[in-house]
Amino acid sequence: MVRRCRKLPEAPLGTARAGTAAGRRILIVSDAWRPQVNGVVRTLATVAAELAAMGHAVEVIGPDRFRTVPLPTYPDIRLAVLPRRALTRMIEAFAPDRLHIATEGPLGAAARAWARRRGVAFTTSFHTKFPEYLQARTGLPPSLAYAWLRRFHNSGAGVMAATESLRADLAGRGFANIRPWTRGVDLALFRPSPREDWGLPRPVFLYVGRIAVEKNLRAFLDLDLPGAKVVVGDGPQLAELRRDYPAVRFTGARFGAALARAYAGADVFVFPSLTDTFGLVLLEALACGTPVAAFPVTGPRDIIGAAAPAVGAVDADLRQAALAALKADRTACRAHAEAYSWRACAEMFLAHLVPVDGAG
Fold first, then answer.
1. Does residue 237 sit in the same domain as residue 111?
2. Residue 356 phi, psi dihedral angles, 5° rounding
3. Which entry of 120, 132, 156, 350 is 20 to 30 Å from 319 by CA?
């Protein structure tokens, strides 16, 4: 069992409390957390809020509570420095009855080490294909990183993965106890109108997301397509791509209603990534009635594949996918997104958590 200790002062972010006696005390440890802006953070923050609304006490421990250093080549992401002692105090102060380790960075590794020392059961999740990211940035063979990730996740009671194709890939690499955990979309925020008037030639082909090498953006920007291209987002490649593609409209990051208008105002959402494990932006685009064009890889293959051509196209030729997606049905796109609920996502997550004492 987790030993109860004096509770530390709570950080202003990361805690969602609810007071019902039947509620669980759920602790999520994640190296990806606010103020980072990415799909992992959106997923964890939304699921934590849903769980709190269901009557559970939820706390997220992220790098914002520690001294940090920037991730090499990606300064917007900061990593906790030597977090073990402070993290141990925070875990024992909260005294969870369910522990989930969301990421494999310094905080995830420290939480895993603490749990193994104490004999505490925990779950993990696989959000990002870091081996492929490392290969894109450093040339390191993915097999080396996957060997470490396999040891990391197989020491837990189960690893959650978002799509069928990702689960099959992980199983083929020797990962064990793989559990399905889908994603959701905010259907009230992301909707078909109002639409952004870009003032650009139609059709408008849109990308939304991080502007980074692992997103394979040049595969989109180099396409010979009619109309115009728009890129919404920020990241370490932004200045370089602005210089190299002066005809492309780069807006910087957008949030909330402004982001929803951007999706709705496009004719096709183009997703060139080869390494994402899901792609929340796919659901956001579809919820705004905008069809998707992508490569036939994990994420798009699961979300778009069976529903094509009504909601978009996946093709090894991204140009052909983009042109085919112009023929999709915007009403069908919205209907397809409506099948994805954040409440169902949170309930699935909750069902996979295990008692810290290893009981049934």
1. no
2. -65, -25
3. 132
Give the pLDDT confidence of 308-343 residue by residue, as tens digits. 999 999 999 999 999 999 999 999 999 999 999 999
- Residues 19, 163, single domain; the answer is yes
In a domain, 360, yes or no: no
**Using an 8 Å Cβ cutoff, are 146 and 295 in contact?**
no
Residue written as token pair 């669980």:
24
- Assess if residue 197 is contained within a domain: no
Q: What number of residues does the chain have?
A: 360
Backbone angles phi, psi at 329, to 5 degrees: -100, 115
pLDDT value at 4 more than 60: no
Question: Which CATH number does the domain housing residue 59 bear?
Answer: 3.40.50.2000
Residue 43 is assigned to a structural domain of this protein: yes
Q: What is the mean pLDDT of residues 194-219?
A: 96
| Residues 317 and 346 both lie in one domain | no
pLDDT of residue 360: 57
Edge to edge, the sheet with strand 268-271 lists: 249-252, 228-232, 204-208, 268-271, 292-294, 312-314
Position 91 confidence tier, pLDDT thresholds 50, 70, 90: very high
Mean per-residue pLDDT, 160-173 = 95
Residue 326 lies in domain: 204-337
CB 220 within 8 Å of CB 206: no
To 5 degrees, how large is the angle CA 20–CA 21–CA 24?
85
Gap between the Cα atoms of 6 and 247, Å rounded: 58
Task: Report the predicted TM-score, pTM, of the whole model to 2 decimal places.
Answer: 0.84
The answer to whether residues 39 and 171 belong to one domain is yes
- Answer whether residue 3 is part of any domain: no
Residue with tokens 């081996």: 131
Looking only at the bridges linking them, the beta strands covering 268-271 and 204-208 are: parallel
Identify whether residues 160 and 219 lie together within a single domain: no
Q: Are the C-beta atoms of residues 196 and 228 closer than 8 Å to each other?
A: no
pLDDT in tens, 7-47: 333 333 355 554 444 689 999 999 999 998 888 999 999 99
* Per-residue CA distances from 184 to 152, 285, 290, 338, 353 (Å): 26, 12, 17, 9, 19
